[in-house]
Write a structure and sequence with these properties.
The protein is of the alpha/beta class. 34% of the residues lie in helices and 26% in strands.
Length: 319
């Protein structure tokens, strides 16, 4: 494990964004204002977010053997992101994501996994060195669960830290939770993760999240900010006051920035205990990522919204 390095084991897709005045109701058609298409996917966005925040970044994933896969690979290399861990699939096309964004910046998305759904635990053995040399490894539930578990196992075995983005929403097995240093989940997906009813109070939700068995849980709540939870503590982290243009991808960009900042503070051989100074470093990394997300929502375009480190630091300084 090398300090300062980030590995994203994640999904890659071609992302189509359509701007609308308002999101349609079920069965309703609305006029689109414009549409854009380009490389995206949670894994790609997280990797770009980490690279622009200053980390040395590698990505492990699977794309189709098609033009979209080639475009994603070349785009990531320009960041620059190491793509030696990107496998190609003959059987499936590169994944696709379709997002509608309204005038308030709110969005709704549909994800077609494509080749992402074929990333198997065995594929990670070929990229084992890439995962083991990272001080922070980011994984997402857009991949098959056995693959997520294997990525976490490889990271922990080498002394790295695991960030799990629970999206799409589903429950987490205790064995996987025990491998995770930080779960990141938004306010909508958190109730599924925690197994609580929609009418359950925030206190019950946070209690369940803190008891999942992970080192910490970051619950993101949009304009209401986020809360960093452990079994013994709760820290409120507000967002910055900005004009929101487009929230698409901002959460993933923020996760990438968090990984970059946390990786820079994790010493080699830090071990598996998430307590003490490492939790203080995590809180700083969350505040850094909050600033990154605050910059990202002021821009359009999923990859284009990811800020540089200098822009994040300016947001933190109140610039």
């Amino acid at each position: 494990m090398n300090a300062g390095r980030v590995c994203v084991v994640g999904s890659l897709s071609m992302h189509t964004t359509v701007r609308v005045r308002r999101l349609p109701r079920p069965g309703e058609a609305v006029d689109g204002l414009d549409a854009t298409r380009g490389p995206g996917g949670k894994g790609a966005l997280q990797a770009v977010g980490a690279a622009r925040a200053g980390a040395e970044v590698s990505i492990v994933g699977r794309v189709g053997r098609d033009d979209d896969g080639g475009l994603i690979r070349s785009t990531l290399r320009r960041e620059p992101i190491h793509t030696v861990g990107l496998a190609e699939s003959w059987e499936a096309a590169t994944g696709s994501t379709f997002t509608l964004v309204d005038e308030r910046g709110e969005n709704a998305a549909v994800v077609v996994p494509g080749a992402n759904g074929q990333l198997e635990p065995g594929d990670l053995e070929e990229a084992r060195h890439t995962i083991e040399e990272a001080s922070v490894v980011v994984v997402t539930f857009e991949l098959p669960e056995p693959t997520v578990i294997r990525a976490a196992q490889l990271a922990k075995a080498s002394g790295g830290r695991v960030v799990l983005n629970v999206a799409p929403a589903r429950t987490i097995e205790p064995g996987l939770a025990a491998l995770v240093d930080l779960i990141v989940v938004n306010q909508h997906e958190a109730r599924v993760l925690a197994g609580v009813a929609d009418d359950a109070g925030d206190a019950e939700l946070e209690r369940r999240l803190a008891g999942l068995g992970a080192g910490a849980v970051l619950l993101t709540r949009g304009a209401a900010g986020s809360v960093l939870l452990t079994a013994t503590s709760s820290v409120e982290i507000p967002v910055h006051n900005v004009e929101v243009v487009d929230t698409s991808g901002a959460g993933d960009v923020a996760i990438g920035a968090l990984a970059a900042e946390w990786a820079a503070s994790v010493p080699e051989g830090a071990g598996e205990n998430a307590g003490g100074p490492l939790m203080e470093d995590l809180e700083r990394a969350v505040r850094f990522s909050t600033a990154a997300g605050s910059v990202a929502v002021t821009r359009t375009g999923v990859l284009a919204s990811a800020p540089l480190r200098s822009e994040i630091e300016a947001m933190l300084a109140g610039g």
